[in-house]
Amino acid sequence: MWDERYADENYVYGTAPNDFLAAQAARIPKGRVLCLADGEGRNGVWLAQQGYDVTSVDLSEVGLEKTRKLAASRGVSVTTIHADLAEYKIQPNEWDGVIAIFCHLPSAVRHYLYPQTVAGLRPGGVFLLELYPPKQLEYGTGGPRDLDLLATLEDLRQDLDGLQFEIAQEVEREIHEGQFHQGQSAVVQILAIKSNDE
Ligand SMILES: C[S@@+](CC[C@H](N)C(=O)[O-])C[C@H]1O[C@@H](n2cnc3c(N)ncnc32)[C@H](O)[C@@H]1O
């Protein structure tokens, strides 16, 4: 499904970074950043332009090819990994930042992946997420229709136990991020830090 969606030469989610990421990225310590489900790379490539050492993981090889092309066009490089996050292993203590933008995963995969994300952050590292919660079904302005792929803030807090939450909110905002994400929307936004004490 994702390879088909990305087959068009246009970037279906645009080439500009996600609004929440662009507003908060300065809080990520300079270093290695892992972008989960980075799609066509708009977020990973932008982070590389800000000076981060970026690794993008996605299920779609077509999306990753477009990521490499976008990076080359901007004179930066991004390491791309073709993997299913249902099986991907995040090494402990490796990352200064982990980013998950519109990374809609089944609840079983979230329970597998997010505790590894907590362990994968270095002390002081930042986890940043924006995605659609179940309330987004009332808006119909983007995102999956399968309820299991839509997480509440409370679901995510449980999977991310161990982080210190600096921003943790369900809000409504106007989104214009490519042809599939358009209009007034409900989103969950998280910015959480791995404490230096861990
Ligand atoms: C809505 S797109 C968002 C892409 C990108 N984060 C952005 O904001 O432009 C969702 C992405 O999740 C990826 N994805 C979905 N399930 C996945 C899985 N199990 N493992 C890895 N990537 C997955 C898809 O390939 C797709 O690129």
What can you tell me about this protein's structure?
This protein is an alpha/beta fold and 198 residues long. The protein has one domain: Rossmann fold, CATH 3.40.50. The chain has helices at residues 2-6, 19-24, 42-49, 61-73, 107-120, 153-159; strands at residues 32-36, 53-58, 79-82, 95-101, 121-131, 164-176, 182-193. The protein has a seven-stranded mixed sheet with strand order 3-2-1-4-5-7-6. Helix 3 links the parallel strand 1 (32-36) and strand 2. Helix 3 packs parallel to helix 4. The longest helix is centred in the middle third of the chain and has 14 residues, at 107-120. The radius of gyration is 15 Å and the shape is globular. The mean pLDDT is 96. S-adenosylmethionine binds at residues 2, 13, 18, 37-39, 42-43, 58-60, 63, 84-86, 101-103, 105.
Q: Which structural traits does this protein have?
A:
globular, 27% helix, alpha/beta, seven-stranded mixed β-sheet, binds S-adenosylmethionine, 198 residues, 7 strands
Poorly predicted sequence stretches spanning 5 or more consecutive residues = none
State the CATH class. Answer: Alpha Beta
How would you state the average pLDDT, rounded?
96
Q: How much is the radius of gyration in Å?
A: 15 Å
| Bound ions, cofactors and other small molecules, one mention each | S-adenosylmethionine
**First-last Cα distance:** 40 Å
- What is the correct CATH architecture? 3-Layer(aba) Sandwich
What percent of the residues sit in helical stretches (DSSP H or I)?
25-40%
Biggest sheet descriptor = 7 strands, mixed
Assign the CATH superfamily: Vaccinia Virus protein VP39
- The spatial strand order of the largest sheet comes to 3-2-1-4-5-7-6
- Total tally of structural domains: 1
The sequence of SSEs as H and E is: HHEHEHEEHEHEE
What best-fitting shape do the alpha-carbon axes yield?
globular
Q: What is the CATH topology descriptor?
A: Rossmann fold
Question: Tally the helices: what do you get?
Answer: 6
Strand content: 25-35%
Number of strands: 7
| Helix-and-strand structural type | alpha/beta
